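The records we work with from here on pair a chain with its fold. These numbers are not coordinates but entries in a learned vocabulary of local backbone shapes. To see the layout at work, look at the sequence and tokens printed below.
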Amino acid sequence: MLSRAARVPGTALRYNSGGRARTLIRLFCIWRPVLDQPTFVTALVLGIVEGLTEFLPVSSTGHLIVSGSLLGYTGEQAKTFEIVIQAGAILAVCWEFRAKIAMVLRRIFTDSSAQRFAANLVIAFVPAAVLGLAFHKAIKAHLFAPIPVACAFIIGAFVIIWAERRQRSRPETVRIASMDEMRWTDALKIGCAQALALIPGTSRSGATIIGGMLFGMSRVAATEFSFFLAIPTLFAATIYSAWKDASLIGAQALPAFGLGFIAAFVSGFACVRWLIRYVAHHDFIPFAWYRIAFGAVILVTAYAGLVQWD
């Protein structure tokens, strides 16, 4: 559904006139609809963005906030949409690692390694869950916006570069080669790192993977644990948001929510498969440079007055 604001320049993004580039952007703003409800195209695009970015250290939430702003889909319902479709991407992880998950569930009462793995997931889940419940409203009100996202993108990029160079120059810091070697204290540290991802633009996967590397895990082990930690963390966030903000969804938007969910599952599955192969032979520094470039574009366009991001 298109609101009356669809005919008013600068509802989701406001552009200043002046110069040919500004004029072209202003024309785009005039003709670009501002959405009260997600269209199928919007849901499809955002679902693909979610799936492709959820497990990379580039922040899926940050990309969704910026993409939604460009597509004209912002507001409280859009924030709920961004959280709900995460479940699609997480189901992709569940499917990819279904054998490991089934094994842990079968042996949870009899096998010590399965019990330790499950306990580590619970321990790592707790910090973000507690802080998320405490600061959920404040984060959605003040940090779900492109400028804070851009700042978090750039800061996080330098942390990634530091962590990768540290592990490359000091390989002896790696003491955990697989998830089975993790202690409960390691899980707690990674859980605290994950809590930083409550800030949009930080990246949940980036915080857990890079945090794990800084705390002594190999890149492969940290990435695998990040996959599994995403399951309780993002399912909990999705269920909480869907329950708390159910009135924002409405029957009219359900088909679009479903399409976004499916798109996130398909693109997320493809991304997980690719990332498993990638981390075996490559580092995350290219993603750091991408984060710097992405954040810089947002900040420069805002500072230059070309785009006023909302």
